[in-house]
Amino acid sequence: MGADTFAPDVNGAARFAERLAAGLVERGHEVHVMAPAASRKHGTWTETHEGQQFTVHRLYSWRWYPHDWLRFALPWRIKQNSARVLDAVQPDVVHFQSHIVTGRGLSIEGAKRGIRIVGTNHFMPENMLEFTLIPKAWQEKAIGLAWKAARRTFGRAESVTTPTRKAADFLEKHTGLVGVHAISCGIDASNYRPNWEPRTENRIVFVGRVTGEKHIDVLLKAVTLLPAGLDAKVEIVGGGDQLKNLQALARELGIADRVRFTGRVSDEELFEAYHRASVLAMPSIAELQSIVTMEAMASALPVVAANAMALPHLVHDGENGHLFRPGDAADLADKLRQVLEAPQAEYRAMQEASIRLVAAHDIQRTISTFEALYRGEAVVDPSIDVESANAAE
Predict the structure, then answer these.
(1) Angle at 87 between CA 86 and CA 93, to 5 degrees
(2) Are 31 and 17 in contact (CB under 8 A)?
(3) Per 3-state DSSP, what percentage of the chain is helix, strand, and coil (rounded to 5)?
(4) 79 near 109, Cβ under 8 Å?
(5) DSSP readout, 170-186?
(6) How far apart are CA 73 and CA 2, in angstroms?
(7) Same topology between domain 12-186+362-374 and domain 189-359
(8) What is the pLDDT of residues 342-390, one digit of tens each?
(9) Pick the CATH number of 12-186+362-374 from 3.40.50.80, 3.40.50.2000, 3.20.20.70, 2.30.22.10
(10) Tens digit of each residue's pLDDT (9 = 90 or more) over 36-81
């Protein structure tokens, strides 16, 4: 399995690769992961993730300083490194999680050796533009080149996947690929502990990277538009390059005393943050799935999310939360208010809907589908569209 981002990185692609690798090991498969080293130390060793041990080949990496933590394997050495690892491991299948560096090298060298290749896309070029230092006038051209590079790498794969049907359509549109599978990243909902106790305060939580594409500023502006009587508090869980800017914005908006920035937290601290919250706010407009939203749903939280990309697959408006117009702080405030002011019975119904809707994203189904792809079998994409109660009526 090849990844350009892997634990200890905290993002959807890294978490999916980690969970998939561990799930496959638990089923008895031998799994090796090739990824950039998380520090200057590089080499091959056994690591433990999600309670499972497997071999990780950590490549010599450089820090990308426009980003707050990103490290990348050297592009001009990736074919050599890929050949070395493939010849040592002799895998039956190569599954790359990103086409940028690691996936490109593994797909080239894997194809030379006749190894079955599966590729998964978690990436939108637009998400990385702010970290590339490319002048705005050149960004549209850069996006076009990035999609062409994706087409070349994914074109070497026997099967291509991405987390949702909308993301699959998006990838096909921009690369010309056909037959892209929509396979949920999935979560193990049993790891999350729903909190059914009545909330004693109005607490809004955001979880994720604190970066520009997440539009956390829209959330902070929305908080200023909520009725004062709600005394709403905000918890921003995660680290990123926009932390200081958002702290300054909270002071400027006069809500610094109601906004808590936790930075990165442990899994146990994350569970506690979900338990404290009354609602998850997800203002991002570039989510190809959003594992965070699924985690919140498995924790029995209503969700208010931007009506963009894949979020409507998870948030059924008026059922387990609400969708708001992307970038519209007033609309976000209105939808948050509807959740926070909901009578207890209505709030409980939203909680129960989150639990029901997230059940379709069971990671065991995801693992079984990838096992079939690894064997070269034709698969029918797992259905992740749960019929809504509103539609059923």
Answers:
(1) 40
(2) no
(3) 45, 20, 35
(4) yes
(5) HHHHHH-----EE----
(6) 11
(7) yes
(8) 999 999 999 999 999 998 899 999 999 999 999 999 998 876 555 554 4
(9) 3.40.50.2000
(10) 999 999 999 999 999 999 999 999 999 887 666 779 999 999 999 9
